[in-house]
Design goal:
The chain is an alpha/beta fold. The protein has helices at about 15-25, 40-50, 65-75, 90-100, 110-125, 130-140, 150-160, 165-170, 175-190, 195-205, and strands spanning about 5-10, 30-35, 55, 80-85, 105. It is elongated, with a radius of gyration of 19 Å.
Length: about 210
């Protein structure tokens, strides 16, 4: 009897990761790799042609990242079943991925059984999150949102800019910069600039 296999598109900019996922999928009787690619724009282009059952999507890639690619695919194909598979496990990364329409979120240290089980569950129409991912998402939901201006200030903090340099670059008064820094510290539970950067890196709000 012919088995209707789950057709999978693998999206990852690391050849070794693609090879590992390809080998894992090929070790099963109910899955096939339809294709693979190394950035989000290629993922969009190949999805349109192949309409895979499942897309395994990395987050950080050249040309176009996983969140942006997921948003674009879901806008055109609302029923697309995308699973993020990444090394990044910050609660902000998880939040952004789920907000973009991903059906699940896997970190690359998860077991083969967890990965294959999640693929089958999502293919069956479920939205499923591993317990540790769900806990981090819950914590993120409890944290206040940062405004676009606050994120811009935070990005410049990471680059070591002074208040005067931030003021010049964002075309804000120094008092406005100080006000945004105060709000930023409060939302992140940080006491100073270094604490804000460390906290933002730990949560995945920013990446070096």
């Amino acid at each position: 009897m012919k088995i209707n296999r789950i057709r999978i598109l693998i999206v990852d900019d690391h050849p070794s990761m693609r090879a590992g996922l390809r080998a894992l999928v090929k070790s099963t009787r109910d899955m096939d790799v339809t294709d693979e690619c190394c950035n989000g724009q290629e993922a969009i282009d190949k999805f349109r042609v192949q309409l895979p059952d499942i897309t395994l999507m990395d987050l950080r890639m050249p040309v176009l990242g996983g969140v942006e690619a997921t948003l674009a695919i879901r806008a055109e194909f609302p029923d697309a079943r995308i699973i993020v598979n990444t090394t990044y496990d910050g609660d902000e990364d998880i939040y952004r991925a789920i907000q973009s329409g991903a059906r699940s979120y896997l970190t690359k240290e998860m077991s083969k059984e967890e990965i294959l089980g999640t693929i089958r569950d999502v293919h069956a129409g479920n939205v499923i999150l591993p317990s540790q991912v769900e806990e981090r998402l819950r914590k993120r939901m409890d944290r206040p949102e940062l405004t676009q201006r606050e994120l811009a200030v935070l990005d410049l903090l990471v680059k070591g800019r002074s208040n005067k340099e931030i003021s010049d670059e964002l075309k804000l008064s120094e008092d406005a910069v100080k006000s945004r820094l105060k709000n930023l510290f409060q939302k992140l539970g940080a006491q100073d600039r270094t604490g804000a950067v460390v906290t933002a890196l730990r949560h995945g709000i920013i990446h070096l």
